[in-house]
Design goal:
It contains 15 helices and 27 strands.
Amino acid sequence: MDAQSRGQADDIDPADQWVLNPQTGNYELRLDRSSRQSTGSRSTGAASSRSTGRRRGPSGDAAPATDVPEQRARRAARAGGAAGGAGGRGTPPPTGPGRRKRKPQKSRKKKAMLWTGGILACVLVVGSGLAYYVYERLNGNLNTVDVGDAGSKGITKDGPVNILLLGTDKRTGSGNEGYGDKGSSGHADTTFLFHVSEDRTNATALSIPRDLITDIPDCPTKKPDGSTEIVRGSDGVRFNESFGVGGRDPGCTMRTIKQITGVPVDHFMMADFNAVKTLSTAVGGVEICLAKPIKDKESKLDLPAGPQKVEGEDALAFVRNRHGLGNESDLDRIKQQQQFIASMIRQMKEDTLGNPKKMFALADAATQALTVDSAIGDIPKLTALAEELGKIDIKHISFMTVPVVDNTDGATVILDKVKAPQVFSMIQNDVSFTEVKKKESAAKSKQAALLKGPRADASDVRVDVYNGSDTQGAAQKTLDWLQNNQGVLKSTNKSNAPEKIATTTLEYAPNQADQARKLADLMGLPAAALKPGTENAEGTQAMVLTLGADFKGAGVPITGPAKVPDVDKVEADKQVCAK
């Protein structure tokens, strides 16, 4: 990676300017006078501004000394740290030339897992104390899409985080003519729902098969002129039509996933074919393992059995190939893709983190290949998200596929009616697939804490009942049972909820906790169903009970997290050979 190709002058590679700051133990960017001048930094008035860190604006008021590169670098580093990055605090090292020193041990945050297979590499680089011009370059690489209310508005530090990782089959880019559909704007080709637990100890990457038959809801989409257009939904079509068809944007895919799984999606990250080629090359190749050779005339993929590395065109051909694998279905290809991404995560952990030059190359490649929702559409926001995700240990990242069965047409699949709801329930209830017993115990502890305290009399419980389930008349049946069998007379049927939900919820104010405990006792509500608010209820304000798809009938207890269903999993810290 030469400096000229990265938009720098005089053959200065940004990564070559990193030195160890002994005060922080982190690598930071060295901005000596010669490098500043060679990169065209403005110096007028710098000497008179250094002592105060301020300059005078046109009106005579003090203004930030943006012309001073050292101060600009410090502010960028502080901004990255405040947004959740991994370090780079304190005074930068001396600006004069200095020899490189040995690498320190990686800090905890630099050990953060790049669980997206490279897409979030950039946020870890920023968290290491980027200089302004490096930050500006990466920030300029990002593309954003406004998905409206399909996602959340910011970065949450409370509660789980759910991210759509979307790989499209758009054929743009050199050498991609043989992949995907000719003339297509791209479909939802490779899709993961990435669920990060509330306590940030584990994550689950759930693959959604492109050939899954599902219903796609109506999708409000933002047009270039700022207007909103409603793209009408479709019933009984392939999942991959949730993006690209009829102008559907990633927000449509987010809404479709929520409808399928009952899990709301907070953000999306999207990349095309080029991302596989550039990211695999940036990390120096991704190690794979084959149980038997692959020789495919269509993709020109010719790989022997056993462990080996692939990058660039071979890497793309590998993740797109389905010939010679099992029954040559998309489901077998999904397993291969899961193994590839898990291997890339291990590769970056072992060879990339802590190496500034490799991290910059990976960050540059990742941001150029990446499109995200506007709520995380710049480097500081991605850095804030990285802080939330960087605590996950690789051994607690698991990959799996939505349980499906063959459709009658033999070319598509449909949800497994027994196993799929169990998997969705695990994610909805934030239960780890790698630490089930621990999470079940935590759920019980949480439930015990919420239910600890006095109970109101049934006659004092005031609740509005909404039907968010598929069961017709569920709200009225529950109301009849509460009033006639349990003495909850201050209850009201509010008919259908604004939208269907997967799990029943009870929303209540702090001063209604005794009522909530009583109703939870009566209905057998799990901890995950209880949603305490932050402001007290006033007057005759009622709690809100919304029945979900887990509603089994009036008076039938709603169970808590299910046990892990019997599904295949790929754990990120283990290498397996594709079959």
